[in-house]
Amino acid sequence: MAVFLDDERVTPEGWVRTYWPDEVIALLKTGQVTELSLDHDLGDDERGTGYTVLLWLEEQVVTVGMAPPAISVHSANASARLKMEAAIASIKRHARE
Questions:
Q1: DSSP string, 42-86
Q2: How large is the average pLDDT for residues 52-72?
């Protein structure tokens, strides 16, 4: 399953649309997510951002050995993109250990 997290962009064909981090996390918990594309800014930082998903995923990779899906970032927020890409690199490092 390919999961697309965004509050505004058009969902690519064949992807499952989500609007909030908790929706993505629920899908990740099923073990069926093979690809993840994340936006950062979702319109309500109180509910979380794309980075929130990455923090949860990193914890799961480190603590329970969860295998991460392929992850990409499509956020236009340049500073958040850098932070998210650093988190993805960390997830990949931990997944290999």
A1: -S-GGG--HHHHHHHHHHHHHHH-PPP-EEEE--S-HHHHHHHHH
A2: 96
